[in-house]
Model the fold of this input.
Amino acid sequence: MDRPYVEWMRVEDYRCIRSVDVHLTPLHAFIGPNDSGKSSLLRAIQGVGGTIRFWVSGGIGGYQRALGQPHEFGGAYDRMEPGRPDFWEQKVLPAVRDLALLRLDPDELRQPARLIPSGTPLWFSSERGRGLAALYDALQTRDFDRYVATSRRFVELFPCVRALRLQNPTDSTKALGITLMDGSDVAASEMSEGMLYWLSFAIIESLAPRAILLIEEPENGLHPARIAEVMKVLRAMSERMQIIVATHSPLVINELQAEEVTIVTRTPERGTICTPMTATKNFAERSKIYALGELWLSYADGELEKELVGDDPPAKAAAAS
Amino acid sequence: MVAVKVWLGGEGNNDLGGDGEVGAIEALLRRVERDGWQVCGKTPWWTLRKYRAGGALRMPTGHGDAKNTAKLALTAWEGGADVLAFTRDLDADTERPQAVDDGLAASAGIDIRIIGGIARPAIEGWLAALLGITGTDQMSRDRVARELAAKGTTLKETEEYVAIITEAHAGLVLRDRHRTGCGSLRDWLQRAADVLGNAIRG
Done:
């Protein structure tokens, strides 16, 4: 990845998180039981709360962001290079400014959306995915070839569909719809969740890149084969923006490298704990036999994951090293 | 002397024995090495998770037994075993022997000694061979059952499996592959003698 990205962060004092260190990659996944702190980690990165310290790739420096000051990027944390007035603007801020979180909700994805004025950077109008129809409308106007390519791929993947349609419920709104092979039309309200999720991920490549894109459960509503396809899309996008996902799906992490996965667990004593997949129990041997997702699935118990992370998951200092 | 710890893998109770009970595989191993080892765990094949995701397998073949064999080796190693001893019934699956070989190759990086192989057509064929029936490797399961029935053996209880093995003249099988026609058992027993003997006596 040519552009700077966050390769390490420490999050403190937010929801169930007391203090955790996490090593990150341009495409990264948190996987773990319910209520372990995965979503809290995403929220902390988003800047909703807690204290977070980032270290940006290339050894170029870091910064911290304190509770209640999500957009204040001052406060050099460590190893700032002296005599580099362009340091913040060119190196650190591009890696951490302009974050977006997606927690796609099919009911929101179905909604008619207000037209997007020309020249406006393209992005969903809410983290739930509102505005999807307007994004496709804008794509059709701004990059017709890409719209056609995406539409064709959609038809290939959903063989009952003849065409993706954009309708005008009002003069100023667009709505998605499809035409089936028998010629009948289906409104967005009747489209399958899997279709809507696929359309959402397929268009992200065409939207304005963010520094970091945080995604909750990208596997939702998708057939296993489509999950692999979405992860390929996310990997391609990670060349342009850092992508961090929270997931429960072994199929998602099957598409990742071991260093791209962090196991998130939680104990009453320590709160949220982050264990790199590569530091899990017997990883060297297990990884020869299992694909990553299968490894996780075979040893995860949905609670403390002791068969994965052991009785004493890596302490903060060990993880930081 | 610390007893060598052996993990058993097999089709079910007749192969493995129930909790604290001797099954066919342990009985076979006792014929090779009576003492100096102990069973430290058992895994029926059916308990190995059958999870696959397209393209994500680390095996050269898509046959489930390649992965299951490797998983079995890993399970035994993680259970603290020095040796894994397993059998897998052929069950007319012609791709299974190669799959097991692939699984064994994939297990090479795991620090455990392995006695393992295909029982043709199933472990009952080995019992038939031990009772003096020839050519069992080439028989179907039904044929083996008929041959055993002709000798008055129905093999309903694990104890019957163990009794046949314990009382049989195993040397017959070991010495003369062509006459008995049960090379799968001969190879398995020879491997057991090599591996277990080395593990016990260094």
